[in-house]
Write a structure and sequence with these properties.
The structure holds two protein chains of two kinds. Chain A has helices at about 10-20, 30-35, 45-55, 60-65, 70, 80, 90-100, 110-125, 130-145, 150-160, 170-180. Chain A is an all-alpha fold. Chain A has two domains: about 1-105, Fumarate Reductase Iron-sulfur Protein, Chain B, domain 2, CATH 1.10.1060.10; about 110-180, no CATH class. In chain A, α8 runs antiparallel to α9 and α8 (about 110-125) crosses α11 (about 170-180). Chain A is globular, with a radius of gyration of 20 Å. In chain B, the strands form two sheets. A four-stranded parallel sheet of chain B has the order 2-1-3-4. A four-stranded parallel sheet of chain B has the order 6-5-7-8, with helices on both faces. In chain B, α3 packs across α5 (about 95-105) and α10 packs across α12. Chain B is α/β, with parallel strands linked by helices. Chain B has helices spanning about 15-30, 45-50, 55-70, 80-95, 95-105, 120-125, 130-135, 155-160, 170-175, 200-215, 225-235, 235-245, 255-260; strands at about 1-5, 30-35, 75, 115-120, 145, 180, 220-225, 250-255. In chain B, α1 links the parallel β1 and β2 (about 30-35). Chain B is globular and about 55 Å long. The chains are: A mainly alpha, B alpha/beta. At the A-B interface, α6, α7, α8, α9 and α10 of A face α2, α3 and α10 of B.
Chain lengths: ~190, ~280
């Protein structure tokens, strides 16, 4: 592939440039897919993802960025810990998730997962910490799962596990500027 | 009394406050005062590294920079997820000068990357192992399934903690306080972690396999060192029981609560009343 062109293009090349992970090192032993706790829920298993990157076709690149797989990956790091070639698949997943979101290609099947991450970060941006009640409220509004866990919240409150008011970081200006210079910049 | 820096992280102030309570209680008993990093923020957890790499490095960097400013050489980070995020961010910044400079400008603070980050087990290994036996008032004589989860041991190349398959550090400490640690198959399998709210059914399945194996091997108790593992195995018990199609009463407690019981610290001080699955062992 590479030596035919002056500059490599495609998702695998982007992955390599951003993460230094070389998808071509994968020789398809399948240990990652065997150990992945959510492989059976994925549209493409981790070893399939690596193979699709190797094909270096625009069609497969597009399928990956629109896959449910990248959002189902829990970053449990089991795959990398068992990979005989030390291919850092979790790093690849992080890169593809970030790109998929910025390119607005997130699978509708990942709506709830993305809504959770975004609600989580909204809480951190506003308060500096995770405000669990705020996170749940924001998540419910985003997903409309209004009645989910309705029985758990009172029990958590009774056990002293839920704050009604958030704990605030004092230097919130510093926090909002961190968000402005990173995730909000793009 | 010696003093160590302390990063509780968000869960330990809310849904896992009993982890904080028991960490503080046993630290006190072994002569360690934990001093919180002033004005600490959230580490960004799974959400940040899923959505934006620079954010996922900057949030931990602010925490570590504040610890440096305070002159802290070592910080204790009981939450396995925070421990992993802080350690991974520090490692990545130490291996990428350009990014280190960029992140320092993003957080608008000097950042050196020199603070030593320890999980609770490392703190115990370093400062308590030789004292623990003498302090035991009531041996914790139960069959215990020590559950490490993901983020305490992985990524191994960066964390360099314990063995990545069949880790032993928690088992060793549990034996020291009188428990009988079990051999079992799900020590380092993922519980479903951050999917607790967004993919509750998957959490029921993954956590169900873990709890099921521990129970089948005769565990009286499951021992954890991570707030996410705890809430999935404890608070998500109804989903676990649906997956397993049977009732399971086996409690899940933090290793610090087990140690606290052995040291004779009161159940209330250790927060044992805060769990969803009642803790009947003592």
């Amino acid at each position: 592939m590479g030596h035919h062109h002056h500059e490599e293009s495609g998702l695998a090349a982007e992955v390599k440039k951003a993460t230094e992970v070389a998808a071509e090192k994968c020789y398809q032993c399948g240990k990652c897919s065997a150990g992945c706790p959510v492989a059976d829920e994925m549209d493409y298993t981790p070893s399939m993802v690596m193979r699709m990157l190797q094909t270096n076709t625009p069609e497969n690149d597009e399928k990956l960025l629109r896959s449910k797989t990248i959002w189902l990956c829990l970053t449990c790091e089991m795959c990398i810990s068992r990979c005989p070639m030390s291919v850092d698949i979790p790093k690849v997943m992080d890169f593809m998730r970030e790109k998929s979101r910025y390119d607005k290609k997130v699978s509708v099947k990942a709506n709830d997962i993305l809504a959770f991450h975004e609600s989580f970060l909204l809480s951190v941006e506003k308060t500096g910490k995770l405000y669990e009640l705020g996170l749940i409220a924001a998540y419910k509004l985003k997903t409309f799962h209004l009645t989910q866990d309705i029985a758990v919240a009172p029990a958590m409150f009774q056990k002293g596990k839920l704050h009604l008011m958030p704990e605030l970081v004092k230097d919130r200006g510093n926090l909002s500027s961190i968000f402005a210079k990173t995730i909000k910049k793009k | 009394m010696m003093t160590l820096g302390f990063y509780p992280g968000c869960s330990l102030t809310g849904s896992s406050r009993e982890y904080a309570e028991s960490v503080v209680a046993i630290s006190e008993a072994i002569g360690i005062e934990l001093k919180q990093i002033p004005d600490w923020n959230c580490c960004g957890a799974t959400a940040a590294h899923n959505l934006d790499k620079e954010l996922s490095l900057s949030l931990p960097a602010r925490i570590l920079a504040l610890a440096e400013k305070e002159g802290m050489e070592e910080i204790v980070v009981p939450c396995a997820a925070c421990y992993s995020r802080l350690t991974v961010a520090q490692h990545e910044l130490n291996h990428d000068e350009e990014m280190k400079t960029k992140v320092s400008s993003i957080i608008n603070m000097p950042y050196k990357g020199t603070v030593r980050i320890m999980n609770v087990i490392q703190m115990l290994q370093k400062y308590a192992v030789d004292k623990l036996t003498d302090l035991i008032k009531k041996p914790f004589e139960y069959k215990a399934a020590c559950y490490y989860g993901c983020l305490l041991v992985r990524p191994h190349e960066i964390l360099q903690f314990d063995r990545v398959e069949n880790p032993q550090t928690m088992d060793v400490i549990m034996s020291q306080i009188g428990a009988k640690p079990l051999d079992w198959a799900f020590k380092t399998e993922c519980c479903g972690a951050g999917f607790s709210v967004s993919q509750t059914k998957i959490v029921g399945k993954l956590s169900g396999k873990i709890v099921g194996d521990a129970v089948d091997r005769g565990a009286d108790v499951i021992i954890v060192a991570c707030p996410m593992c705890h809430s999935n195995l404890d608070m998500r018990r109804p989903q676990i029981e649906t997956y397993l199609q049977r009732k399971v009463q086996t409690p899940v407690i933090y290793i610090t609560q087990a140690i606290g019981l052995a040291l004779g610290i009161s159940r209330e001080k250790l927060g044992l009343q805060r769990h969803f699955v009642p803790v009947k062992i003592s």
